[in-house]
Amino acid sequence: MRSLFGWFCVIMMIPIFLLCGIIAGKESRAIKGLGTVLDERIPIKSVELIENSYIFDHEGRLISEVISDQQNRTYLSYEDIPDIVKTLYIESEDKRFFEHIGFDAAGMFRAVIVNTQSKGVEQGGSTITQQLARNVYLTHERSYNRKLSELLYSYQLEKNFTKKQILEGYLNAIYFSNGIYGIGTASTYYFNKQIQELHLAELVFISAIPNNPTMYNPLKNFKATKERQERLLQLLFELGSITNDERNAAIRYPIKLSIKNRTDLYADYVTYVHHELKQLISENEGFTQQLKTAENKENIEKQLTETVNNTLRKGVIIHTALESERQNRLTRSLTEYIPLNDVQSAAAVINHKTHKIVAISGGKDYEKYSFNRAFQAFRQPGSAIKPLLDYAPYIDLTGATAKSKINAGEFCKSEYCPQNYSGQNYGMVTLETALKYSYNTAAVRMLDEIGIEKGFSYLEPFQFEKVSQNDHKLPAAIGGVSVGLSPLELTSAYTTFGNDGMYYENHAIVKVTDLSGKILYEWQEEPVQVWKKSTNTQMLSLLSTVVKSGTGQRAYFKDDYIGGKTGTSNDYHDIWFAGLTDTYTGAVWVGKDQPGNIESIYDKGPQLYIWKEMMK
Question: What is the pTM of this model?
Answer without folding.
Answer: 0.90
